[in-house]
Design goal:
mainly beta, single chain, globular
Amino acid sequence: HVQLVESGGGSVQAGGSLRLSCAASGYSFSRNCMGWFRQAPGKGVEWVASKHVDGTVTDYEDSVKGRFTISNDGRKDTLYLQMNNLKPEDTGVYYCAADLTDAGHWRHFSDFRVRGQGTQVTVS
């Protein structure tokens, strides 16, 4: 059974930091691409960051560039999102995703075959 489980969310004040983790079971992050997405209250899912498994290419949504870092630990099959200098507009449920379809784009949540259930981040 393939599963991604996010953790590390919580409530922080503006300017604070959080590190999200996404642990895989029944799946290896050794395959193609992975990403983080978020959904603010009353809004749709938006892309945050993506990377190729080999780490040579990363991509960030403009509002998080310089503040967020996506990384993975291949040995632990865990994906991370380090979030610094958090802002209230970063509030939302954060989802990880993996295994991009052949014709998919890594900025599209639905183009990933495997997706987590989300972890809440609240910045006040």
